[in-house]
Amino acid sequence: MDKSVKKVRINIPMVLTWTRIALIPLIVGVFMIPTSILSMHSQNLLGCVFFIVAAVTDALDGFIARRYGMGTTLGAFLDPVADKLMVSAALIVLLAFGRVDMLVALVIIGREITVSALREWMARVGESGKVKVNWFGKIKAIAQMVSIPMLLYFDPIGAWNVYLTGTILIYIAAILTIYSMFVYLKAAAPFFSSEPKQK
Fold this sequence. Notes:
Oligomer: single chain
Number of strands: 0
Mean pLDDT: 90
Strand content: under 5%
Number of domains: 1
Number of helices: 6
Order of helices and strands: HHHHHH
C-alpha cells in the first residue's frame, strides 16, 4: 500500500486575495456596531486597520505572484475585482458618515465600473494590452489607498488633522481617476466599432 502523502501547493497570492475579500465586510461591519458597544473612535481605528491590512495584501499578492511565478487566471480576475469592491465599500461607508463628498465617491466608483467594462470589451476584441494599467492609474491607486484609511480613522493625531490630509488626497485621487479614465478611453476608442473575436 502506497502511504506516500501528496503535497498540496498553497497559492499564497490567492490566499491573500481571498483574505482581502473577507476583510471587506469587516471594514463595513465595524461601523454598524452600536456606539454603546464600541466607541466611535474604536470603530474608526478598526475600520482603518482592516483597510490597511487589505491594502497590504493587495500589494503583496501581485508581487509574490510575479516574483515566484504563482499567477493564475482566477487570481488575475479576482485581484482587480477585490480592489474595486474594497475601495467602493469603504467609500460607501465614508459617504454614509459624511466624510467624503458624494461627487468624489461617484467619480471614483463610476470610473472603476467604466474601466472594468472597457477592459472586458477590449479583451473581447483581442486588444486588452491597449488598456493595461498606466502610471496615472498606479498613482491614483496609491492616493486612494493612503487617503481612504485616513478618512476612516477621521480623528486627529496630536496636532495633525488626519481628516483634512485624507480629504486633500482623495480629491487628488479623484482628479487622477478622471484623467486616467480618459487615457484608457482614448486608447480604446479606435476599437469601439470592432467585432468581438470568436472563441
